[in-house]
Amino acid sequence: MGSKNKLKRFKENETFSNVFQPKRPELVDADYEMKGSWREKFFKNDHPLILELGCGKGEYTTALAERFPKKNFIGIDIKGARFWRGAKTAVENEMSNVAFLRTQIELVDKAFGENEVDEIWITFPDPQIKYKRTKHRMTNSDFLEKYKHILKPEGVVNLKTDSEFMHGYTLGLLHGAGHEVLYANHNVYRQEGSPKEVTEIQTYYESLYLEKDKPITYIKFKIR
Question: Is residue 126 annotated as a catalytic residue, yes or no?
């Protein structure tokens, strides 16, 4: 994507009422104004709040929001030029149950209050296979602690990935730490009874993986 196109998208994001772009100090050094108040201040309802972490273009966020109109969805990514597409789609389709937050995933516990979130989706994250990159792996112990803080006691996390490594690493960590695995599958498109929101919603890259017959894995779990 050219720099002019990026700048155009950044400027358009600033005009969208469903896009939030706090500066890092707003999250780290102060109490962010939306923290603990997303339902009250933006969605204006008490419906369940679901996050998609690393939402990319926002395809999954908007698709889930369309499928579940009685739930609130927030896509989170540091790359605003990417989620511009999802934000624009939501604005054009007058979807009042979708928002996008531009920030780093490691600050998620600064953007949301304790027990504020009902569910988290992590879709096709970078598996960070190299050992030195494990601190950035989105299901490592540090991240799980942050998720636990913002999730309600019975809140769930969904991990959908094309990486067998990420799938195996996460399962091993969950079992080893005594977390509750509700569902796990190495190939959701080959298994009868897979959740519909997992198999009937696909990102662009996911469709490419499927064309190459690459298995898509899925885990649903609770953090204890």
Answer: yes
pLDDT at 15: 85
Instruction: Return the HEC string of the chain.
Output: CCHHHHHHHHHHHHHCCCEECCCHHHHHCCCCCCCCCHHHHHHCCCCCEEEEECCCCCHHHHHHHHHCCCCEEEEEECCHHHHHHHHHHHHHCCCCCEEEEECCHHHHHHHCCCCCEEEEEEECCCCCCCHHHHHHCCCCHHHHHHHHHHEEEEEEEEEEECCHHHHHHHHHHHHHHCCEEEEEECCCCCCCCCCHHHHCCCCHHHHHHHHCCCCCEEEEEECC
Considering its fold, how many domains does the chain have in total? 1
**Catalytic pick among 126, 142, 162, 213:** 126
Q: What is the CATH number of the domain that holds 213?
A: 3.40.50.150
pLDDT at 203: 85
d(CA 142, CA 32): 21
**Sheet with strand 98-102: strands edge to edge:** 19-20, 98-102, 72-77, 49-53, 117-123, 151-161, 217-222, 180-185
Instruction: Look up the domain containing 105 and give its range.
Output: 3-222
| Average pLDDT by stretches of 10, the chain with 224 residues | 77 89 94 96 98 95 96 96 93 97 97 98 91 85 97 97 95 97 94 88 88 94 97
